[in-house]
Write a structure and sequence with these properties.
Elements (H helix, E strand, L loop, with lengths): L2 H10 L6 H11 L10 H10 L3 H10 L6 E2 H10 L6 H12 L3 H5 L2 E2 L1 H8 L46 H6 L29 E7 L7 E2 L9 E2 H11 L8 E7 L3 H15 L25 E4 L25 H21 L1
Helix pairs in contact: 2-3, 5-6, 6-8, 10-11
């Protein structure tokens, strides 16, 4: 195998290496001086290239003079280093599963190659494979859990001038999605992926829109606007693609009472049975559990204390004062901060 062929092979197996370093190893392993490696030379090249000194140190600690790690020493490694509680039970199958040498298998031992194969497998992964499925108690009240939440979910870029999109609800669950700015206006075709990443609480910053249709955007900024109804459709389609547990729609509501009614109509008509509209089992003393709320969408927002005052003019809403939560106050402070920043940028 020539140096060029070897380089192509390394690319195929996803091993990236500096050309100068690879050439040095190639020349060292070319014992026959033929500008090509064969059999044992290729094996030696691969071993030198993939050598991990820290793994060698660990293997030497638990292996004998013959370079074999006995089943008993593998148990010690699993217990002391990997902190596996069932090390005695786990060790023998690991030898049978990952040891390439039949001779070592018969001695119920592991060579360095087998040890390396084990470390690179799912069994050697730092992630606990039993946690791939939900293993926690999901029958406690919803308020007993941390919820993976998103802030300004609708933003695709910065919070002052970037575009808004329903795609953002489907793709990320971080505060803001920092990525390349889209040059086109967002549309329904963006509805494709924060919810599929595991986000269970999305934020909707709602404002009055034209034609009596509520819109979503970051208030007092130059961010683009998307229809409230489009976002609700995106939530319906992707809420439970990766998790059956409830989704919370957090409403930061700046809409007039008339457009709030439109919002309610959209949520009930689009979400239908998914929308939780009454207490589970009639209980009002505590939140239902995530288990009870599987497949359900909850709405979180500030309730109005009374209906629109008929004497109001120009469509304004005259509402009684109501206690403001820390969350509402924080949102108002953010709006003021953003408004000031936009004004400063415009100067």
């Amino acid at each position: 195998m020539s140096f060029k062929e070897l380089k192509n092979f390394l690319k195929e197996v996803n091993i990236e290496v500096d050309d100068y370093h690879a050439k040095e190893i190639f020349q060292y392993c070319d014992k026959s001086k033929t500008e090509a490696l064969e059999d044992d030379e290729i094996e030696e090249f691969y071993k030198i290239l993939t050598e991990r000194k820290e793994i060698d140190t660990i293997f030497q600690k638990y292996s004998d003079a013959e370079g074999l790690m006995s089943c008993q020493n593998l148990v010690r490694f699993l217990y002391e280093t990997q902190q596996e509680e069932d090390a005695v039970v786990a060790a023998p199958p690991l030898i049978q599963r990952y040891e390439p040498s039949e001779r070592a298998k018969k001695r119920n031992a592991m060579t360095k190659d087998g040890f390396l194969m084990y470390l690179l497998s799912d069994d050697g992964n730092i992630f606990n494979t039993s946690h791939r499925k939900v293993y926690q108690d999901m029958t406690q009240p919803l308020s007993h859990y941390f919820v993976s939440s998103s802030h300004n979910t609708y933003l695709m870029d910065d919070q002052l001038t970037g575009p808004s999109s329903t795609e953002a609800y489907i793709r990320q669950y971080l505060c803001l999605i920092l990525r390349r700015r889209f040059k086109t206006q967002p549309g329904p075709f963006f509805v494709s992926r924060a919810l599929t990443k595991g986000c269970r609480c999305v934020e909707l910053d709602c404002w009055d829109g034209p034609n009596s249709e509520p819109i979503i955007y970051h208030g007092y900024t130059l961010t683009s606007k998307i229809l409230f109804s489009d976002v609700i459709k995106a939530i319906k389609n992707y809420a439970f693609k990766t998790s059956p547990y409830p989704v919370i729609i957090s409403l930061e509501n700046h809409c007039s009472l008339e457009q709030q009614k439109v919002m309610a109509q959209h949520m009930t008509s689009i979400l239908q049975d998914m929308l939780l509209v009454a207490p589970i089992d009639g209980s009002k003393s505590q939140f239902p559990s995530p288990e009870q709320l599987k497949g359900k969408i909850l709405v979180k927002g500030k309730k109005l204390s009374r209906q629109e005052d008929p004497s109001g003019t120009n469509g304004n809403n005259n509402l009684e004062a109501e206690d403001v939560s820390d969350e509402d106050e924080a949102a108002e402070m953010e709006d003021e901060s953003v408004k000031t920043e936009v004004q400063q940028k415009g100067k």
